[in-house]
Amino acid sequence: MKKMDFTERLNLYLEGGMIQPEDIADIQAIIAMFDTKYHIVLQEENADTFIAHLCAALGRTASGEAVEPLPPEVKAELEGLDSYPKSKEMLQEVMAAARHRLNETEQDYALLHINNLIARLSEEQPQLD
Fold first, then answer.
1. By C-alpha distance, which of 34, 18, 21 is closest to 99?
2. What's the rounded Cα separation, in Å, for the pair 73 and 39?
3. Residue 112 neighbours by CB distance under 10 Å
4. SS3 call for 100
5. Angle value at C-alpha 118, between 85 and 8, nearest 5 degrees
6. From residue 107, how far is each of 15, 16, 29, 125 by CA, in Å?
7. Which residues form the PRD domain (predicted)?
8. Of 85, 115, 94, which is closest to residue 30 (Cα–Cα)?
9. What pLDDT is recorded for position 10?
10. How far apart are CA 120 and CA 105, in angstroms?
């Protein structure tokens, strides 16, 4: 089975007005950062939800649309995960790779998706733990 990149998804989001052309550059920079810094190749099979969230978050940030904060119990559960420190580091790298900053609420959701990504990848590559 051929591994899928995000070109088709990003083009659909662009055509639908969810993201702008500069957001594609940010997403591509984030994908490249995961590859170079963490040796993680993000593709549809392992990071579809994470990339979809980043695109939605970038679109909401540009339009000024707010989202409800993570419920406190979800945030507490997230902070209790073994992968939380690594996800915080990865989020800082994501923010450094992108030109557009996400607000704190969007960053909390990004952390949730990064932790899910770590969990998904650790099932495939246990050495990521």
1. 21
2. 32
3. 20
4. coil
5. 130
6. 25, 23, 17, 25
7. 18-124
8. 94
9. 94
10. 23
What the block records as the tokens of 41 is 């190749």
Q: Tokens for 62?
A: 């540009």
Q: What integer pLDDT is reported at residue 112 of this predicted model?
A: 95
Q: How far apart are CA 26 and CA 9, in angstroms?
A: 14
Which tokens is 122 given? 């650790």
Residues whose CB is less than 8 angstroms from the CB of residue 95 and which lie 6 or more positions away in sequence, other chains included: 101, 102, 107
Tally of residues, the chain: 129
Query: Of residues 79 and 62, which shows the higher confidence score?
Result: 79
Place of tokens 């170079």: 36
d(CA 87, CA 80): 12
Average pLDDT over residues 99-107: 91
